[in-house]
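Case study 2.
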Amino acid sequence: MTNGMTMTNAVIECILSRSSAKYYDTAATLSDDQIRELVRIGTAAPTSFHLQNWRFIAVRTPEAKARLKPIAWNQPAITEAAVTFIVVGQLVETSVIPERLAPLVEAGVMPAAMVPEWEIPARNLYMAYPQRRRDEAVRTATFGAAAMIYAARSLGLGSTPMIGFDAEAVHREFGLAEDEVPVMLLSIGAERPGNWAQKPRRPVTDVLNLV
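Prediction:
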C-alpha cells in the first residue's frame, strides 16, 4: 500500500478480475499434466498442522462427466468445461501428522523433537470434536479450491465453483471414503465469449470493522 492506494501487481489484478465462468469452449481440453499442475498449485494452500487433508477427483472424460452431470443438477459446466474437480475434504485424523511432517524433518526445516509438539495439541483440538473435524475438512478443501481458481485465472482459464450437487450421490458414485466430504465442484477450462466481468462487491465500509 502506498498513500492509501493499492499497488498494482499481477496477483492482485488476477484476484480483482476473476469472475465465475458460465460459458466454456467445449472444444478446448486440458492435458493430464496441466490438471496435475493446477492441483500442485492448489496444494500449496495453507492447512492446519500441515494435515493436507484434501483430495481432488478430476472428472475429465466424457464417461465420467456423464456420471457426474445428473447428480450435479445437470449444470452445463460439468460437460462443457475441460475438467470438473470434485474437491474433497478429509475429516481430521491427527495420527497422520508425523508422516505429513516427515518431509519437513528430512529437509531440515523442522527438528524431529518438534513433531509431538504439533501432534499432541492437534489431537486435543480435534479428535474429541466431530464438528471441528468436519469444519476443518471443509476449510482445507476450500483453501485448495481457491488457490486453483486464481491459478486458473492467471493461466487465462475460467472457473466455476459449484455447491449444487447431491452430496450422497457424489460420495457413492465416485467412491469417496467414509471420512471424506465432497465440499464443492470446481469446473475449469478455456472460456468462450459472453462471460460477465467481475460483479461489483459490497463497499468495504459495510464489511470492515477497525477496532
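The chain has a mean pLDDT of 96.
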